[in-house]
Write a structure and sequence with these properties.
With 218 residues, the protein is of the alpha+beta class. The protein has one domain (3-179): Nuclear Transport Factor 2, Chain: A (Roll). 28% of the residues lie in helices and 31% in strands. A 6-stranded mixed β-sheet has the order 2-1-6-5-4-3. A hairpin with a 4-residue loop joins strand 4 and strand 5 (138-154). The chain is elongated. The relative contact order is 0.15.
Length: 218
């Protein structure tokens, strides 16, 4: 084997190592994003608003959209949007009462990293089971929706850049989504987003995908 052959082998091995390192980093980033998304769901269970808002980027272009509440822009606006007392004014308390329950499980996640490795997009189902205190009794709820989120890596830590949620249904458990598909959302409403129109079951609305068909590329 000549020196030139050895140099070619070393170069090929170096390229393979760099490729494997890139793949390993991508997988680590995807796992970190999954943990971020799941953490958001766990903090929602008892509406831990301080923990929730820390998952969001502090960049000026950070956004939150939930159904037709409009687009909350900037970390301060997002922090205010998760204020429990503003959401659930009927309870008359600043924090979620013990009987309140908001279990929202992220399922079937598809995460796509951008080429720069610093931003990403993800689509998830969110399956919901809840308990909402009412004046007479606590009401059991069931629901499902879709997230189309954007993420950003800041100082090595993944955070939400844009959280975008569309309810498919949100119904009393004893009635179901066919009989009563949507109860509405208590989040305070601001000016509606100019390019989005929320529609729930049974509209047949398909929440736009961030990705192309993985087989056809269309």
């Amino acid at each position: 084997m000549t020196v030139a052959d050895l140099e070619a082998k070393v170069e090929a091995l170096s390229k393979s190592i760099k490729k494997l390192e890139k793949q390993a980093q991508a997988q680590a980033d995807i796992e970190a994003i999954k943990k971020l998304q799941r953490s958001y769901g766990f903090y929602l269970e008892h509406w831990q608003e301080d923990e929730i808002v820390e998952l969001f980027s502090r960049s000026p272009d950070v956004q939150l959209e939930i159904n037709d509440t409009g687009c909350f822009k900037g970390w301060e606006a997002i922090r205010d949007s998760f204020n429990f007392a503003d959401h659930y004014t009927a309870y008359g308390v600043k924090k979620a009462p013990g009987e309140f329950l908001h279990i929202l499980m992220p399922l079937a996640g598809i995460v796509d990293l951008d080429k720069n490795g610093k931003t990403a997009k993800g689509r998830w189902y969110g399956f919901f089971l809840g308990a909402m205190p009412r004046p007479v009794k606590t009401e059991a709820l069931i629901g499902c929706g879709i997230w189309e989120n954007e993420y950003v890596k800041e100082n090595g830590i993944w955070k939400f850049k844009k959280l975008f949620w569309n309810d498919i249904f949100c119904s009393p458990l004893n009635e179901g989504w066919v009989k009563n598909p949507f109860l509405g959302h208590p989040m305070k409403t601001i000016a509606s987003s100019p390019d989005y129109h929320f529609q729930h079951y049974p509209s047949g609305f398909i929440f736009p995908y961030h990705y192309k068909n993985p087989v056809t590329g269309k």
